[in-house]
Amino acid sequence: MATFNSSSTPKTLADALTPRQIVEELDKYIIGQADAKRSVAVALRNRARRQMLEDDMRDEVAPKNIIMIGTTGVGKTEIARRLARLVEAPFIKVEASKYTEIGYVGRDVESMIRDLADLAVNMVKSEQAEIVKEKALELTEERLLDFLIPPPRSTIGPESVEKNVEIADKDEGELSGEERLALAVQQFDPTERSEISEQEQERYQRTREKFRQRLRDGKLEDKPIEINVSNRTIPFVEIFSPSGIEEMDINLKDMFGSILPKQEKKRRVPISEARQILAQEEAEKLIDMDNVISEAIMRVENSGIVFLDEIDKIAGRESKSGPDVSREGVQRDILPIIEGSTVMTKHGMVRTDHILFIASGAFHVSKPSDLIPELQGRFPIRVELKSLNEADFKRILTEPKNALEKQYIAMLKTEGLNVTITDDAIDQIAALAFQVNESVEDIGARRLHTIMEKLFDELSFNAPDLDETSITINADYVTEQLSEIVKDEDISRYIL
After folding, report:
1. What is the pLDDT of residues 198-215, one digit of tens each?
2. N or C end of the chain: smaller count of CB under 10 Å?
3. Residues 230 and 197 placed together within one structural domain of the fold
């Protein structure tokens, strides 16, 4: 089995990104918010530094969890997501408001760690599948050739000889038709049988190589073949248990999966589809799942990132009236996970002591000090993200790798339409987005999505039928499409 070398667990500090490099990578996708970028960059670098410490000291270093404070659409989630993708770390985004206090029906807080473990296992499994991909494709090719041209019956290998010995030990009345035929072949003169076998084997190999070449040339992709596919049906059972609905459901599936016999069904599919099915089966045979699970758990414990969104929704003190589940109770349930505990997952025990938690919230109504003191202490780093202004909108439209301007131009180019957006059009779009945010509600950069979608609505609809091959979008076009909507605040509330 191949060994793993995760970039999320560097062997030396030289293998890890420096804080400056992390910020530079984040700058490619996120405009502004320098303070937040610096904070997450330092937190990530500290993880690499921790890996270099002695074992006894390494266990003592706690992660520097972060609370990001800012209105929606300023880049909180994007910073955390890009950070995780940058270091290939297991990452999960959860909403704090969907968890409920113990004793109520709903998701328990430990489910976030179980989900993170599942995600890590799938991540490592995908990486390992990529490593064994070449070998799996070789084995898949052989299986496809076996389906296309099965080996000749008269070819007698070691397995056939053993089978013939078993047949010879039976009484004649117990033999099936196939066994009688095999016995008749066995009673031929050994020399003659060998010659026939060698001739057939040679002819078979020549034919097999011809089919192999045609297969590699892609000439048989549409040819249908019949293959055996694993088919394991597991009954659906939902049981409420103290450990949570999700975990009980998982355990039942695993239990029934091991008890029920593995069944196969025949499917008639084209070779192009059969190759994908068989390649996946062969890859799973080559992957050592014990190694995958142990590596995944190690990554979760040392490199996992949980992005806890909408934490301000549970920041209020417990209400004495109303049907709401106790917010303070949810905080107390989350506290042990962030503080460091052991969570039982279907892959094994996972310690949360060194998982990095990044919380975020707008904190319009509440404030971070409304969190219970114990939870506040587990988030030592606070960083405030600034609201976006008109200049930021202009940069967001053009500078990032995945800028909206580039996306729309590329999408319409698939229709054969070359779109050019002038600088004054960008200025006008940014000004309108900022104006709507100020007059209606500030939803940050997400306002640009609504503005751009409305701007390109007519063009996107008519693009396949247009005779023109190039169109220029200038400030006048933007004003023509959007000015009336923006001026009428009542309409803009619904449309933009």
Report:
1. 777 788 888 888 888 888
2. N
3. yes
